[in-house]
Write a structure and sequence with these properties.
This protein is α/β, with parallel strands linked by helices. Helix content is 50%, strand content 8%.
Length: 413
């Protein structure tokens, strides 16, 4: 494409810029326009990818057909198949009538699928069939329908990475990527940044009848050095802000810095600054070691506090047991003075000793709960049968015998 043709295209579509990468993208778009080959436009968000499919459609034999631009990322996953391929009446809740879908309505035209990388895998399979055979089936239908549609797709994600992660079909990627077009980011377009600023400033001046803002030499340097993560869209937003919010019409470098982030990588993940201003994994390790050291110290303090509390509880248990022994109510077994965490030692003793200790423990738990009147009533209910009485009271025969002797009832029953 010669320079005059290229300039005419730029004027027709209001394209500003002279960088080589942009001119190459426009040249490829015009060469592929007369064909029906699928085109995949790749570029960051905000670089102006939507211009290319419109240019391709207008310069193709389908220019008299319908053109639809669809943002795949803005349509919910549950309804995107219906939006693209149509549906039958009653195929889902809310389907009160039939729908042709974009592929039915755009027959003999062009469909631009923006953010195609956001399509669900099931929808990708349907799209692949349309690309290969021109056939599709409505949601809830069985009839195979035909369509003759040119598909131009765009994405701002790394499709190859999405393929390797299983988020995008490899066969669909190669089918869409018949003709790839790479749109350059604004930071790589050099003085196009200043040309675009001037265009947006003129548009604001004409729209609101205000003097046009310009840039000082220092401000131009700041604009050229900035990375523009939001690309052309971000540049337009900042130009509009400057046009309305600043009183001076010549924008200084200090003013520019108030409207753009000082960190050119501000939209990326934060890195840990070092003395040299570069990212350092060694510095990260030092920070992690410090965190682990502090955590270890906290755990040590917590362990010391737990040991102190356990010691206090153990001392209190020994003291209470000694007081109960001195009260003279009943004689305690020496095993009751052993802390609970030594209970495992009992398993190594003879079975007879363990059983005796269980009896003594049972006596300790129940002696204080059994009164003379309770025993008498229980004996009456069981007609003097001591075994049944002991079972009813939840004590051993030995304990019942001691209580009977204590209350002078051992000769009555």
């Amino acid at each position: 494409m010669n320079p005059s043709q290229l300039q005419q295209i730029k004027q027709r579509y209001n394209i500003v810029g002279n960088c080589e990468a942009l001119n190459h993208a426009l040249d490829v778009a015009l060469q592929v326009a007369p064909t029906d080959l699928s085109v995949l436009i790749v570029g960051e968000s905000g670089v102006g990818k939507e211009i290319i499919p419109r240019l391709i459609h207008d310069n193709s034999p389908r220019s008299r057909g319908r053109y639809f631009a669809i943002n795949c990322g803005s349509i919910p996953e549950g309804t995107i198949d219906s939006e693209l391929f149509g549906h039958e009446k009653g195929s889902f809740t809310g389907a009160i009538g039939e729908s042709e879908g974009y592929f039915g309505v755009a027959n003999k035209g062009t469909i631009f699928l923006d953010e195609v990388g956001e399509l669900p895998l099931a929808t990708q399979a349907r799209l692949l069939r349309v690309l290969e055979t021109g056939e599709y089936i409505r949601v809830g239908g069985q009839e195979i329908r035909k369509t003759n549609v040119r598909i131009v797709a765009a994405t701002n994600v790394n499709v190859r990475k999405a393929v390797s992660e299983g988020r995008f079909r490899e066969d669909l990627y190669y089918r869409l990527n018949t003709i790839p077009i790479q749109m350059p980011p604004l930071r790589d377009r050099g003085e196009d940044i200043l040309l675009l600023f001037r265009l947006f400033a003129m548009q604001m001046a004409e729209k609101y009848n205000i003097p046009r803002v310009t840039l000082s030499d220092e401000a131009k340097i700041v604009m050229m050095r900035y990375k523009w993560p939001g690309n052309v869209r971000q540049l337009k937003n900042i130009t509009e802000q400057l046009s309305i919010l600043t009183k001076e019409r010549e924008i200084s470098a200090e003013t520019i810095k108030q409207y753009i982030p000082t960190d050119p990588e501000s939209t990326q993940l934060a890195t840990i600054p070092t003395a040299g201003g570069q990212h350092s994994y060694e510095n990260e390790r030092e920070m992690l070691y410090q965190i682990l050291y502090e955590l270890r110290a906290n755990v040590g303090e917590l362990r010391a506090e737990m040991n102190s509390l356990r010691k206090q509880l153990d001392d209190g248990t020994h003291h209470n047991t000694a007081v109960m022994a001195d009260s003279g109510n009943h004689q305690l077994s020496t095993t009751q003075l052993v802390p609970t965490h030594h209970a495992a030692d009992r398993t190594s003793r003879p079975t007879e000793e363990a059983e005796a200790e269980e009896i003594e423990d049972e006596e300790t738990l129940n002696l204080s709960e059994v009164s003379r009147s309770t025993i008498e009533k229980a004996l009456e209910r069981n007609q003097g049968n001591r075994r049944k009485t002991a079972d009813e009271l939840g004590i051993s025969d030995r304990t019942l015998y001691r209580k009977l002797k204590q209350y002078g009832l051992d000769h009555s029953y």
